[in-house]
Amino acid sequence: MNKRIVSLFSFLALCSWSATAQNQVQKNKITTSYKEGIADDKKAALLKGHALKKQKAVDLAKDNNISLGGVTKEGRVYRLQRVDEFGNYIYYITHNEGSRVTAKVNDIAPGGSLGLNLDGTGVTVGVWDGASALATHVEFGDGRGSSRVLAKDNIPNVATLNGGDLNQFVRGFSHSTHVVGTIAAKGISANARGMAPEAVVVSYNWDDDVNEMNDEAETNGLLVSNHSYGMAAIDDTGRVLAPDYYFGSYDYTAMVYDWLAHTYKYYQPVVAAGNDQRYYGRVNPTKNGADMLLGNTVAKNVIVVGAVREVSNYTGPESVRIADFSSQGPSNDFRIKPDITAKGVDVYSSYYRLPSPISSAPRTDVYSSIGGTSMAAPAVTGIIALWQQWAMENREMPFKSATIRALMVHTAEEAGIAPGPDNKFGWGLINAKAGVQVILGNLDGDALVEEGELTQGETLEKEFIIQEGGSKLIATLTWTDPEGEFNRRNFDEEYAINNPSLVNDLDLRVFKDGEEFFPWRLNKDFTNLIALKGDNDVDNVEKVEIELAEAGTYRIVVSHKGNLQDGKQEYSLLVSTGDFDTLSTEEFKIDESLFSIWPNPVVETLNITIPEEAELNGASIELFDLSGRRVHYISTINTNQVELDLKGLSSGVYIVKVKGNGFERTERIVKK
After folding, report:
1. Which of 315, 478, 326 is nearest to 402 (CA)?
2. How far is CA 181 from the centre of its chain?
3. Which of 162, 168, 410, 532 is the most exposed place for a label (fewest CB within 10 A)?
4. Alpha helical stretches, state H, 457-502
5. 592-671, what's its fold?
6. SS3 of 636, please?
7. What is the DSSP letter of 667?
């Protein structure tokens, strides 16, 4: 195999970018990058086929007097979507049952402990749900007399509805309004403030979700969307709708969602895990509560979110309690699903209530506390909007979706009774603050966030030093895998175990002094679903954790098995220690003692001396403030002695980064 050996920070992904939002230049770059790699004939066939499946299902149901939808006793809306290859009628259903506190969003918000101003400004979030949301709710105002919520599907005149149609609409409208509020409510009612209170939301019903998701990603560069619905397991009469062989199976919907995410590499769908755990004894009784995921929740490239109770102060895994309704995994090929958890019990948010009289305008100041994985998923969606806001304000391009998943997995807080991932909590509890700390750590040289590409037969190696032992070392590798094959054999569990849906199997290993450290994986036994460390041949995320890592030199190796589809695979790699401050590079050929950055503190002029043996061609100097914003940049260096005029900068702490061919130096300075 070809071997590529690089220094740890020689291909940093976090280039800086002066911006205040996802501007049109960024959107154009995103959409242009998609056009270069999409197979138009494949896309047209898939999207047209998806629409035809829905229409054929409706026609068949009407001919056979089968219900097109309804509302369950718990108030969950369900609607017919297609008829599968076995003649089963497949329905979508909504998954309803201090979110900011639990996810540590307040620390990165304006006024938070990190001194940042992440509130969703400039970010557009997609929401597909049982109906479009109530755009006129007071929580969705933009401060200029308009709404930040754009209802993209027609809202019916409720005065013309009655009976079941009226009940379905009210439930769906209320559900979507609550979901959108969890993401983007302004905070008119302080307890209802969303994760990203300045974000814009495009709000759709679920009737043509795949085609609309495709259009938003391809045309508008959509970065994240929320889907608090999925395949229904049970209807309002208690009748089981999903055969037991469907649970955990890589079905048509999972394949389509994976195709979307792989086709549009910056786009990240977020999906609620489902609320069917209480019914496992009826719908899938042989797995003792495991294997309860359906449809889009079995996709590889989506983020599947489980629900937990509020965590006001995380002190350890015991702080995180799973909601008894939150559907558990894994998939039938034993991928780690769900991926993450967030608060989904008693979530207070915006709501819709049917007006009285029905012909009058609806109230725009209604709120409600409800629960479900429907309420957990938008918390994660909102956090992704905040992370992407930082990226768009500080980089030329936003993060790829694989990087978003890597940040989420890398920084998740441990949950569950045993170390590592599991089939209830996934990788743990999402931590918005820690995600930003890793991003900032990358700027400061204390962590690595890299977006790269592995080609056929290639091995990537990186070496680094831990100067002081005792911290946890974490390395996380993620990639957006091509969609897997969909066929009838996927519903056979024995086939799935031996034929996982993973297409490109990348591998992450860490070595020190001849010892090999493996990533986490699930034990492939539904009766003993424990986390092990070993070769992972099913997940498109691999995480190596070394508790109390000893001081010394470590080597990271990224490789692959078999043949890569299209001969290549983009990846995202994160490396950090637990406290983000003991990681340093090792492979520099230049004596760093010859670097000089002075005076420190500095008043007006900062002097930088670069060693004479350094190659200045392509070298640059960047200066960042502590929010990660680049405030000074020299793209071309012609001399080894450089002076930076800092008179125009306010007093405070800044980060100087000098990098070029084969060298990099990062140092904190104080400006008086």
Report:
1. 478
2. 19
3. 162
4. 493-498
5. Immunoglobulin-like (2.60.40)
6. coil
7. E
Q: Say if residue 357 is preceded by a cis peptide, omega within 30 of 0.
A: yes
What number of CA atoms fall less than 13 Å from residue 532's CA on the CB side?
12
pLDDT for 13 equals 27
d(CA 386, CA 62): 45
Residue ranges per structural domain of the chain: 74-437, 592-671
> Per-residue pLDDT tens for 464-496?
888 888 888 999 999 999 999 999 999 999 999
Number of residues in the chain: 672
**Nearest of 576, 577, 623, 588 to residue 450 by alpha carbon:** 576
Distance between terminal CA atoms of the chain?
A: 52
Strands 224-227 and 124-129, bridge-based pairing:
parallel
User: In the predicted model, is pLDDT for residue 591 greater than 60?
Assistant: no
pLDDT tens-place string over residues 168-199: 888 889 999 999 999 999 999 988 999 999 99
Phi/psi of residue 302, nearest 5 degrees: -90, 160
Q: Which residues contact 315 (CB under 8 A, 6 or more apart)?
A: none
Provide the edge-to-edge strand list for the sheet that holds 447-455.
Answer: 447-455, 568-577, 473-478, 541-546
The residues, ordered by sequence, that sit 6+ positions from 399 with a Cβ below 8 Å of its Cβ are: 266, 387, 388, 391, 407, 451
Radius of gyration, alpha carbons of the chain: 25
Annotation: CATH topology of 74-437: Rossmann fold (3.40.50)
Q: How far apart are CA 270 and CA 215, in angstroms?
A: 17
β-pairing verdict for 340-343 and 303-308:
parallel
Q: Are 442 and 522 in contact (CB under 8 A)?
A: no
